[in-house]
Amino acid sequence: MTTGGIATGHAVSPDSGRHWADEGAWQVAEGIHRIPLPLPMDALKAVNIYVVAGDDGLTLIDGGWAIPVARELLDKSLRSIGYGFGDIKRFLVTHVHRDHYTLATVLGQEYGAEVALGIGEQPALELLHRAGNDGLDESPFLAVLRTAGAAEIADLWEAGHDGELPNPGDWAFPDLWIEGDRQFDVGRRTLDAVHTPGHTPGHYVYADQAEGVLFAGDHVLPTITPSIGFTVPPAEQPLGQFMASLARVRELPDLRILPAHGPVAPSSYERVDELLAHHEERLTQCLTSLRERGSVTSLVVARDLGWTRHERAMDELDVFSQGMAA
């Protein structure tokens, strides 16, 4: 779902003057570069990895997806600014989704870099390990879809992922679990790790207040709204957590947004206010549907709403997006 601005797929980033997903190592501040890594067959196009140089080596904010094309491009982009994998000392991963976490763990194991992740992601990692080693009778997410009245969508989703099991090697446990808010020193910089649950239970953003930038992960995206509730095992009240986390970011100074998906954006305050207003509007639409229909499943309510910036009917979306909507 987009909220204002232009679609992420067509956005130009001010640091490069080009489409935000174009390959390269783009300087966003002194000692900070943005490296977009590809996400094949994904509407998001790419994930931004941020390279922060310190006196003792590199800290990377997120790692990318552990696929050959992403690894090769990260290697190429690092070399273009005079570094290699061996210079990476630490990964600060915003959350446990594969496009952020898996390449970090693979490179961390190979080169000895520390991988840090929010402790709220521990249940998801444990579940992924069980699924990869022993399999599961059914994904907890599919079970939630069936409870929501979306059994047909769950069946289509399951058929599309038949036989796919996570590789435990890509989902190694981190070297450091981050608990609460804390600080990380990166050379002369101080990064404030701020717990921002919602997109996932253990999501973190990292604020460099002296530089005036926010490494926002998937919490504050400049042109789209982050998916909420797509976690395994499912979280309780993730939207409420997300909105409370937006309010936490609003308590920080107004910072430049360095997002995981999309172009660099000038104001965290402006975007947080847009996201909060958007979700208040959507909640009002949900309440209107419930008042008109009475006690119904979330699938029924979802079908009453418009989706994407073009207000498409839910049934016009792909199966993945329909599952997210329900």
From TrEMBL:
Keywords: Hydrolase
Pfam families named among the record's database cross-references: Lactamase_B
Domain Metallo-beta-lactamase as annotated: residue spans: 46-261
Entry-linked SUPFAM superfamilies: Metallo-hydrolase/oxidoreductase
An example Gene Ontology molecular-function term: hydrolase activity
Keyword RNA-binding: no
Ribonucleoprotein keyword on record: no
Name of the protein in its database record: MBL fold metallo-hydrolase
UniProt source species: Nocardioides simplex (Arthrobacter simplex)
Taxonomy of the source species: Bacteria, Bacillati, Actinomycetota, Actinomycetes, Propionibacteriales
